[in-house]
């Protein structure tokens, strides 16, 4: 399903910009781009890749962009509806979804309904709408290829179809973020600047904070459940500080097969766009010097309550992951605004899953209603 025409949702972010670096060499046509408000970077991308449609979620940014690129043939849209319109109008065979948060869910549903393959870099899509998305993928017959480095590693380890039938568990690695080994007392006065100092990866602010709280790994656990059809108790989270072993799989005979590489997102992005082919790399090669010491440890669930809350939400299922994700998105925003402390994020995460309505057969609308409800509860208590 190698990509010929690509639409990127979230083109000015870390994943989007790296993807554009890759497609330039691969000769993939860019048909549509979306972003939130970075007008300057979007203008550069429009002039370089000439997409037919773009969307700025921010209305003022869209107005500014229209003026800046009035000399081009690119159509500028705006708002959340504009993002869905780009998915609908841009002639693409693949949509790379790298929008942050639950905002990626509706456009992904639209893309699947239009029989477009999905390169998934938005974990919240499966965290909140896992059953709906996986059912749609089966119905539409499209490909759903993971872009997160961990899930790409797992996917790569399952390419031997004969062995894949013997999958018995997943080895999901985590860097541990900037605060591995710290106690709750030591994290009491952590600043936003401290939390944004990731030791291995260069990412957007929200996902970097999620890595610091370890919520990112909790969300990835839920995502892995849907991608690979295993319950949460078959997924082992391991702290791997070097971020060289990206994840692996256990087979029924006891074998552990893992994928290793430098901490660089270009390999998983490229693999998702060129699958099943493996082309010349855009990443530096992995050398012995980088692998002299690889270490693994257990997560600290008592200090990092976010990963504990995500594990509980994964076990409960239903709308629990949606409530958790929404509460976390609000909590991270409040932390970055200086309204709550770092440890409050984990506290809010645990509170979000204490009382959740039981809706066994929920719809897409139920997900969005649960998202709103969870956000409002957090804001009512902590947003003043």
Top keywords for this entry?
four-stranded mixed β-sheet, alpha/beta, globular, Rna Polymerase Sigma Factor, Chain: A, 2 domains, Rossmann fold
Task: Note the topology.
Layout: E1 5-9, H1 14-26, E2 29-35, H2 39-49, E3 53-56, H3 59-68, E4 75-78, H4 79-89, E5 94-97, H5 105-113, E6 117-120, H6 124-140, E7 144-146, H7 149-157, H8 161-164, E8 167-174, H9 192-195, H10 205-213, H11 215-228, E9 235-239, E10 245-251, E11 256-260, H12 266-274, H13 305-316, H14 320-336, H15 342-352, H16 364-382
Parallel strand pairs: 1-2, 1-5, 2-3, 3-4, 5-6, 6-7, 8-9
Antiparallel strand pairs: 8-10, 10-11
Helix pairs in contact: 2-3, 4-5, 5-6, 6-11, 6-14, 11-13, 13-14, 13-15, 14-15, 14-16
Largest pleated sheet: 7 strands, parallel
CA distance, first residue to last residue: 49 Å
Shape: globular
Helix content: 40-55%
**Count of folded domains:** 2
CATH architecture of the largest domain: Orthogonal Bundle
Oligomer: single chain
Derived from helix and strand composition plus strand pairing, the structural class reads alpha/beta
**CATH fold-level assignment of the largest domain:** Rna Polymerase Sigma Factor, Chain: A
CATH class value of the largest domain: Mainly Alpha
Spell the H/E element sequence. EHEHEHEHEHEHEHHEHHHEEEHHHHH
């Amino acid at each position: 399903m190698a990509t010929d025409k690509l639409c990127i949702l979230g083109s000015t972010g870390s994943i989007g910009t790296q993807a554009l670096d890759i497609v330039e060499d691969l000769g993939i046509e860019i048909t549509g781009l979306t972003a939130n408000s970075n007008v300057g970077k979007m203008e550069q991308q429009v002039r370089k890749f000439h997409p037919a449609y773009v969307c700025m979620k921010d209305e003022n940014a869209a107005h500014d962009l229209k003026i800046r690129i009035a000399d081009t043939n690119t159509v500028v849209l705006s708002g959340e509806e504009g993002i869905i319109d780009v998915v609908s109008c841009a002639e693409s065979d693949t949509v790379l979804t790298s929008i942050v948060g639950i905002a990626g869910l509706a456009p992904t549903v639209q893309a699947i309904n239009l029989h477009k393959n999905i390169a998934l870099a938005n974990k919240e899509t499966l965290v909140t709408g896992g059953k709906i998305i996986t059912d749609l993928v089966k119905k539409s017959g499209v490909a759903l290829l993971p872009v997160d480095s961990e899930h790409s590693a797992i996917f790569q380890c399952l390419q031997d179809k004969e062995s894949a039938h013997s999958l018995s568990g997943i080895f999901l690695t985590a860097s541990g973020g900037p605060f591995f080994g710290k106690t709750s007392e030591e994290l009491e006065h952590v600043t936003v600047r401290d939390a944004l100092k990731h030791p291995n990866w260069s990412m957007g602010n929200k996902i970097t904070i999620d890595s610091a709280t370890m919520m990112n790994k909790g969300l990835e656990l839920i995502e892995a459940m849907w991608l690979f059809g295993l319950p949460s108790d078959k997924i082992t989270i391991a702290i791997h500080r070097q971020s060289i072993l990206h994840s692996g799989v256990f087979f029924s005979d006891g074998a552990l097969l893992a994928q290793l590489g430098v901490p660089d997102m270009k390999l998983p992005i490229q693999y998702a766009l060129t699958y099943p082919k493996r082309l010349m790399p855009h990443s530096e090669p992995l050398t012995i010097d980088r692998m002299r010491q690889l270490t693994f440890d257990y997560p600290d669930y008592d200090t990092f309550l976010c990963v504990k809350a995500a594990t509980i939400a994964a076990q409960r299922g239903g709308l629990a992951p949606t409530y958790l994700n929404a509460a976390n998105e609000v909590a991270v925003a409040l932390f970055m605004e200086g309204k709550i402390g770092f440890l409050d994020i984990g506290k809010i995460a645990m509170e979000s899953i204490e009382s959740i309505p039981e809706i066994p057969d929920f719809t897409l609308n139920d997900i969005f209603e649960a998202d709103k409800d969870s956000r409002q509860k957090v804001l009512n208590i902590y947003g003043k």
